[in-house]
Structures are given as structure tokens and as C-alpha cells.
Design goal:
By secondary structure, this protein is α+β, with helices and mostly antiparallel strands. It contains eleven helices and nine strands. It folds into two domains: about 90 residues; about 230 residues, BirA Bifunctional Protein, domain 2, CATH 3.30.930.10. The radius of gyration is 40 Å and the shape is elongated. The structure holds 3,4-dihydroxyphenylalanine (DAH).
């Protein structure tokens, strides 16, 4: 019996030594230590031994089992280390790495950046306000009476608490004047919301850019000069601007701005609203602030607002406004740079 154990032990360790790969090693493990392996079978045969023989035979067998187990474990580690090494040996650090594809700004973001840069050169700074607005900031303070159609539930998204998704960025004018005295020279790009039926030229959420300049003796000439400069910077020096009288509750006089340039097919295109800030707006601000910092007898200002989506569509020949929000990469990649 002892000889048998010894010879199995030796055969096992010899084949472990000779094994060159992990599958072979596993086969050896099964052959000797598996459920019906040679060492396991020997344990079963202990039943046939006398009581006196059993302990000695048992300890010899245990010794053999742990010896073979250790040998297999050691060899496994050694083979794994070799495999690891050869993996690194194949690694060529001089090969070019995987190329990462770079993202690009959305065309609207690009246009907004351009517009902001032009106004910055004229001394305008960026202002911001919440998308969820009060009726005061969106309408009342902007001289827009309760019966104005823009306030209709059919046209505006109201929240249960009476606040609303701002229908224009003009609310930022009020936010800024509440919090800081003149002179003020700000632009405020951001989202605006209307209950519009979505089609090729309308979205329920779109992007506007608001502007406000308030100081002593700001004139209509300042308004025209600033906006003509802006559109010529954006569309080219030969761009023509037309200020067409219009009505907005918060400006007096008010205009719509049409522009014409060969770049955009040489026909007049309505792009923006603007005007001189209505004294009623300044009075609402004075009342809210509790001071006369915006006394319409002493200060004046101009304001303007335009839709960036519309501008992008004209400038980039985009036929359908929905393309700007569909996140279709085939469309967006055309404007990546
Ligand atoms: N808020 C107007 C709109 O959404 C655009 C506008 C017109 C803004 C005239 C102004 C302005 O600041 O003076 O249609």
C-alpha cells in the first residue's frame, strides 16, 4: 500500500513538472485529485484496511494529497506568470493608440458663441434668469396687460402654482434691473417656451437672445447703430438692415428688424424685435425696487430680442427647425469643425 501511494505521488509530481500549459495541468488535477481520481480512489479503499493500519495509511495519503495539491498550485502560478509576461512581450508601445473621436458644439451653440462674442466687443456682458418665471417678470413688469394674448393659457405653459415657462427672454431684463442700477449693458441668451404646434418652423421650446442697454441719454441712434453693427459682423459688411415700425408692449417706439444680404438669398428677412424701453417698464422697476434709480425722466434704454433658431436656419440653410433638436448625427456632423 505504501508503495502504491508513493508511486502515485511520484507519477503525479513528475507529470506536474512536465506540464507546459494550464489545460494539461487541469487534466492532471482531475486525474489524481478529482472525485474518481487516483488519490480519491485510494481513500475509498481505506475501508478494506484493518483498524490498526488505517491511521498510518490515512496520514500518508493526506500527505500525498497536499503535496500534489501544492505542486499543482505552484505550477499554475508559474504558468500564469509566463502567460502574463508573453502578453506584455507582444505589446508594442510604438504603435499608434486607438483614436478618440472628438465631439463638437451644436450648430446653435456655435452661433450663440459668435453672437455673444460680437456683443462682448461692444461692452455687453452676459446675464441669466430662470426658465420658470413669475407672471410679474414675464408680463406685468413688461407692461403686458392681463388680457394680452401672450398670457392666454392656450399660448403659455403654466405651472399649477401660477408660475410659467417664460415665453421670451425679455424677463431677464426685469431680473437684471431689479438687482442692479444703471448703467446696464447685457445680453441674455436662453430657452423660451410657447404652446406652439410643432412643425417645420415651430418648436414648443426654442432659443432666444435678449439685449438691454440702459444709461443716461441712450438714443434710437445707439439702438440702430449697435444692431446694424451686430448683423454686419454676423452676415457680412454689405448686409442691409431695415427698422420697420411695429408694436411691443415693453418698448416705445418699437421696430422689427429685417435684413437683406446676398448670403441669405437677397430677400428681406424678419429677424428681430427691438425698441426704446417703455417708461412704464422703468416705473414698474422703480416700484419694485422702492427707489428712483430707473427714473424715466433721467435715464433711457433700448432693448432687443431675436430667435437664434431662426437665425441658424437662415445662416446654415437648415430647412426644418426640428432638425436642431433631433440629435441626428448625420445632420449634426455637417457642422462639426
Ligand atoms: N420678446 C419679443 C418676442 O419674444 C422679442 C423682443 C422684441 C424683445 C422687442 C425685446 C424687444 O427686447 O425690445 O417676440
Amino acid at each position: 500500500m505504501e508503495d502504491k501511494i508513493r508511486s502515485i505521488r511520484e507519477a503525479a509530481t513528475t507529470s506536474v513538472d512536465a506540464a507546459n500549459d494550464l489545460p494539461t495541468l487541469d487534466a492532471i488535477r482531475v486525474r489524481y485529485l478529482g472525485k474518481t481520481g487516483e488519490i480519491s480512489l485510494l481513500s475509498q479503499s481505506m475501508r478494506d484496511l484493518s483498524k490498526e493500519e488505517r491511521p498510518r495509511f490515512g496520514s500518508l495519503l493526506n500527505e500525498a494529497r497536499s503535496l500534489v495539491t501544492d505542486a499543482i498550485e505552484q505550477k499554475t502560478r508559474a504558468l500564469e506568470a509566463v502567460a502574463e509576461k508573453s502578453r506584455y512581450a507582444q505589446f508594442d508601445a510604438t504603435l499608434p493608440g486607438p483614436t478618440l473621436s472628438r465631439g463638437a458644439s451644436h450648430p446653435l451653440t456655435q452661433l450663440m458663441g459668435k453672437a455673444v462674442a460680437i456683443f462682448r466687443r461692444m461692452g455687453f456682458s452676459l446675464a441669466d434668469g430662470p426658465d420658470i418665471e413669475t407672471e410679474f417678470h414675464c408680463f406685468d413688469a413688461l407692461n403686458t396687460p392681463a388680457d394680452h394674448p401672450a398670457r392666454n393659457e392656450q399660448d403659455t405653459f403654466y405651472l399649477p402654482d401660477g408660475r410659467l415657462l417664460r415665453t421670451h427672454t425679455s424677463s431677464v431684463q426685469i431680473r437684471v434691473m431689479e438687482n442692479q442700477p444703471p448703467p446696464i449693458r447685457i445680453i441674455a441668451p436662453g430657452a423660451a417656451y410657447r404652446r406652439d404646434e410643432v412643425d417645420a418652423t415651430h418648436l414648443a421650446q426654442f432659443t432666444q437672445m435678449e439685449g438691454l442697454y440702459v444709461a443716461e441719454s441712450v438714443s434710437l441712434a445707439d439702438l440702430k447703430g449697435s444692431l446694424e453693427f451686430f448683423f454686419r459682423e454676423l452676415f457680412g459688411a454689405e448686409t442691409q438692415c431695415r427698422f420697420r415700425p411695429h408694436f411691443f408692449p415693453f418698448t416705445e417706439p418699437s421696430y422689427e428688424i429685417d435684413i437683406r444680404t446676398a448670403l441669405l438669398g437677397d430677400s428681406w428677412m424678419e429677424l428681430a424685435g427691438c425698441g426704446m424701453v417703455d417708461p412704464a417698464v422703468f416705473e414698474a422697476i422703480c416700484q419694485k425696487r422702492g427707489d428712483r434709480a430707473f427714473d424715466p425722466e433721467k435715464i433711457s434704454g433700448f432693448a432687443f430680442g431675436f430667435g437664434l433658431d431662426r437665425l441658424a436656419m437662415n445662416l446654415l440653410a437648415i430647412p426644418d427647425i426640428r432638425m436642431l433638436v433631433e440629435t441626428d448625427l448625420r445632420f449634426l456632423r455637417q457642422f462639426a469643425n
